[in-house]
Amino acid sequence: KWLRHNHSDKEIILSVNKCESTSIGDALSTDFWRLGFGEPHAVSAISATGIYELMESVQKALEEGKRAGKRASGASASEDEREYTRIAFVGRPNVGKSSMVNNILRADRMIVNDASGTTTNSVDSYITIGERDYCFVDTAGLRKLASVQGSNDVIERLSVKQSLRSIRESDVAVLLLDAAMGPTKQDFRIAEECQKHGCACVIAVNKWDIFPENEYEDMLDYKEALTESMRNISWAKVVFTSALENSSRKKVIRAVESCLAEYQRRLPTALLNQIVQEATAWNSPPCSGTKAGKIYYCTQASVRPPSFVFFVNHPEVFDDQYTKYMENQLRKAANFEGTPLRIYWRGKGG
Predict the structure, then answer these.
(1) d(CA 40, CA 30)
(2) Residue 330 burial (10 A CB sphere; 0-12, 13-18, 19+)
(3) CB atoms < 10 A from the CB of 59, how many?
(4) Residues 206, 99, 337, 300: is their CA dihedral positive or negative?
(5) Residue 89 pairs with which residues in a beta bridge?
(6) H or E stretch covering 16
(7) Mean pLDDT of residues grouped by 10 in the chain (350 residues)?
(8) CA–CA separation, 350 and 346 (whole Å)
(9) What is the dihedral of CA 223, 322, 263, 348, to 10 degrees?
């Protein structure tokens, strides 16, 4: 009665706890239909039975609520909506993601604990820095996929899905590494997700303060070794940080702003084709049998990330090796540090 009286305008989702057995739980929950809140969800907080289905229902209700709100507010409200640049802080468990977000926000917004797995869902925080509006996303730590799939922990599986979705939706991913442990195979896999989904990337080597005697030369050596082991995102911008030091806030923000500038940069067509001509002069397009590759011209099709379309005579002869060569030449001539590049080979007829 209280819910109907005070929250009649809200959708109510009914969950019935302590239903450890799926079959018995469904039978027990049927008694709750009489409350008039629709289908009851049989769940168990102990065994996590039914939690996934409950969370799906909540997410669906939230999405429908957002759509209804937009329809009710009309077009004038959409004009006033701010466009936020999404920055996702990702990495393995317990590398300092929440501490880093707290440092940037200058507030203890995220719960921080030495135990891994403290953050179980992605948390959005909105802040304006300079003239740009940011949405900083603190994500749950990503363990090895095999470990997560073999686990009975439904919460962790949902957390991983949320973290991967945050990478897909972000403009820039800040990948935090533990300076003492160095890059691991799991860091490499997370980097692959960033590369695959086309977001700009900053690698933050965190907890650098545990090496107080390290100098600039040590950073260069560490960065060189890091780039060698993380070849899939060797283009990423690298910064050395400590989530507990205020100076790290400026380092991360400057790195993010630098990556965003490259992420949105467009090259003039004349300059682009000059780079391509010089690249082909040093290394001719590949051949396959009687087919000799030839590049007619190149144009930048889009930004976020920068994408280039090469119009050629035989697209099939331009293999991954030559694609990588052309990407390296573009980076050598025009930088593009911190952003992935997309290269497409098209026949002259389209």
Answers:
(1) 7
(2) buried
(3) 11
(4) positive
(5) 138, 174
(6) strand 15-16
(7) 69 82 65 74 77 78 68 47 89 89 80 52 87 92 67 71 90 95 91 94 92 77 91 94 86 96 94 95 92 92 94 93 96 95 84
(8) 6
(9) 180
